[in-house]
UniProtKB/TrEMBL annotation:
<dbReference type="InterPro" id="IPR028082">
    <property type="entry name" value="Peripla_BP_I"/>
</dbReference>
<keyword id="KW-0804">Transcription</keyword>
<dbReference type="Pfam" id="PF00356">
    <property type="entry name" value="LacI"/>
</dbReference>
<dbReference type="GO" id="GO:0000976">
    <property type="term" value="F:transcription cis-regulatory region binding"/>
</dbReference>
<feature type="domain" description="HTH lacI-type">
    <location>
        <begin position="2"/>
        <end position="58"/>
    </location>
</feature>
<dbReference type="InterPro" id="IPR000843">
    <property type="entry name" value="HTH_LacI"/>
</dbReference>
<dbReference type="Pfam" id="PF13377">
    <property type="entry name" value="Peripla_BP_3"/>
</dbReference>
<keyword id="KW-0238">DNA-binding</keyword>
<dbReference type="InterPro" id="IPR046335">
    <property type="entry name" value="LacI/GalR-like_sensor"/>
</dbReference>
<dbReference type="InterPro" id="IPR010982">
    <property type="entry name" value="Lambda_DNA-bd_dom_sf"/>
</dbReference>
<protein>
    <submittedName>
        <fullName>Degradation activator</fullName>
    </submittedName>
</protein>
<keyword id="KW-0805">Transcription regulation</keyword>
<dbReference type="GO" id="GO:0003700">
    <property type="term" value="F:DNA-binding transcription factor activity"/>
</dbReference>
Length: 341
């Protein structure tokens, strides 16, 4: 059976140091490289870690890859950042925040790994520099380098499928879609967002009308949501859709504004269903039904995935998708207790 002495001998550290690292002693300050080495060797030798916290690095970097001053469209990322802070406190971790790749790379020796939060594209050469400086990283919400880093994302495509079924269960067959453009996967930025792709594919499979029912260009902003909704209503003045599925709440706020301005009754004439469940959903008129992305679970999953990667528990990169759940409000009230499939 492996004991503390075996690990001390293999690492070159004292038995006392090994003991305090593996017990997760919060009063013990050690270099991250020391903790990493002790935990890695303990895992390699088959030592059973007794503390759920012992494998969690104390110092972690966070790359803020978004601009919180942009308004509602970036409130989501600010919420996830707050959740990261909360989860770090619970796990006795300290987070250091960086606003750009250059500053994070420069400070790379101070950290065992990093979490990147936000949707902004990162150049391939910058991703490579990040990997050279910090081999372990988890991206939240995008998956820019699947072979270099791990990722945690909400399952937006499955959410769209759930939303389509929920709307159709009410007998709503003329479902329109309003979204935005731009999504990063690997080293590519795609014009078609995965929510748009999922809607197109499932509308086709279910025989739903798509010609002139999909508006998905421009940014994820209130103004763009309103403009695209007005274009949709102009194109279907004689036969409006009976539901509009919207890719994100900021867009949906604009959609509701356009419908109300035209005197359209929500949800009687047109139901509106969105994704994100931002705080603003409670203050629209009518209030907005939206699929919630649990920020706390995104944060917790990212931190635990990174911790496991740092201590050597994975041989391959992991890409985790988290499900969402509907928070019904006035703009769409689903049928209850009806099986989806």
């Amino acid at each position: 059976m492996v004991n503390l002495g075996d690990i001390a001998k293999a690492t070159g550290y004292s038995k006392a140091t090994v003991s305090r690292v593996l017990s997760g002693d919060p009063s013990f300050t050690a270099k991250e490289s020391t903790r990493h080495r002790v935990i890695q060797v303990a895992n390699e030798l088959g030592y059973a870690l007794r503390s759920s916290r012992s494998g969690i690095p104390q110092m972690m970097a966070v790359l803020e890859n978004f601009d919180a001053t942009h308004g509602p469209q970036d409130t989501y990322f600010a919420d996830v950042r707050d959740a990261l802070r909360e989860r770090a406190v619970e796990n006795m971790m300290s987070l250091s925040f960086f606003s750009d790749v250059d500053s994070l790379v420069e400070a790379g020796d101070d950290f065992a790994g990093f979490v990147s939060l936000g949707p902004a594209p990162i150049a391939r050469e910058d991703l490579q520099r990040l990997h050279e400086a910090l081999a372990h990283g988890v991206f939240i919400d995008i998956n820019p380098a699947p072979t270099l880093f791990h990722s945690v994302r909400p399952d937006l495509q499955q959410t769209v499928i759930e939303a389509i079924y929920a709307l159709r269960e009410q007998g709503r067959e003329r479902i329109a879609f309003i979204g935005g453009e731009g999504h990063m996967m690997g080293s590519h930025v795609f014009a078609r967002d995965p929510r748009t792709f999922a809607f197109d594919e499932w509308a086709r499979l279910l025989g739903m009308p798509t010609d002139g029912h999909v508006y998905a260009s421009g940014p994820f902003t209130v103004d763009n949501g309103r403009d695209q909704a007005e274009a949709l209503l102009d194109a279907h003045a004689e036969a409006m859709p009976d539901a509009i599925l919207v890719a994100a709440d900021p867009l949906a706020v604009g959609v509701i504004q356009a419908l109300v301005a035209r005197g359209v009754r929500i949800p009687d004439e047109v139901a509106v269903l969105s994704i994100d469940n931002l705080e603003v959903c409670q203050y629209t008129a009518p209030t907005l039904s939206s699929y919630a992305i649990e920020r706390s679970e995104l944060a917790e999953t990212a931190l635990m995935l990174l911790s496991d990667a740092i201590v050597g528990r994975f041989r391959h990169k992991h890409h985790v998708l988290l499900s969402t759940h509907l928070v019904p409000r006035q703009s769409f009230i689903p049928l209850e207790d009806t099986p989806r499939y």
